[in-house]
Amino acid sequence: MIYGMGIDLTEIDRVFKIQARLPKFAQRVLTEKERAVYQKLTQRRAAEFLAGRFSAKEAYSKAYGTGLGTQIGFQDIEILDEPSGKPVVRKQPFTGIAHVSISHTSQFVMTQVILEQEG
């Protein structure tokens, strides 16, 4: 049974500019394991990765029904890729299943999260 669905659209260059202006932005958005991946990427791919995780966590918070803030924050959600490249929610406050999709063009990243209750 679907508990919630959230989508988000984020401009990659906007996130890149925020990170350039506020170097701790990536640390705020990404978990330690996500940062380990981020730090190995080229500048352009790192911008896409950071924007994708930012957007996916926004979409997750919408599906959860609270938005980001007092109930859940960026560090409460961790999204890592399987060897195939498929993003998977590895850490979350929701007790069910979280499905995530991340897609981007050269300008935008679009994400969708569906939270599914088991049973």
TrEMBL record:
Question: One biological process GO term for this chain?
Answer: fatty acid biosynthetic process
The EC code for this enzyme is: 2.7.8.7
Q: What is its main location?
A: cytoplasm
Q: Name the chemical reaction catalysed here.
A: apo-[ACP] + CoA = holo-[ACP] + adenosine 3',5'-bisphosphate + H(+)
What is an example of a GO molecular function annotated in this UniProt entry? magnesium ion binding
Give the record's keywords alphabetically: Cytoplasm, Fatty acid biosynthesis, Fatty acid metabolism, Lipid biosynthesis, Lipid metabolism, Magnesium, Metal-binding, Transferase
Family, similarity comment: Belongs to the P-Pant transferase superfamily. AcpS family.
Q: What is this protein called?
A: Holo-[acyl-carrier-protein] synthase
* Gene behind the chain: acpS
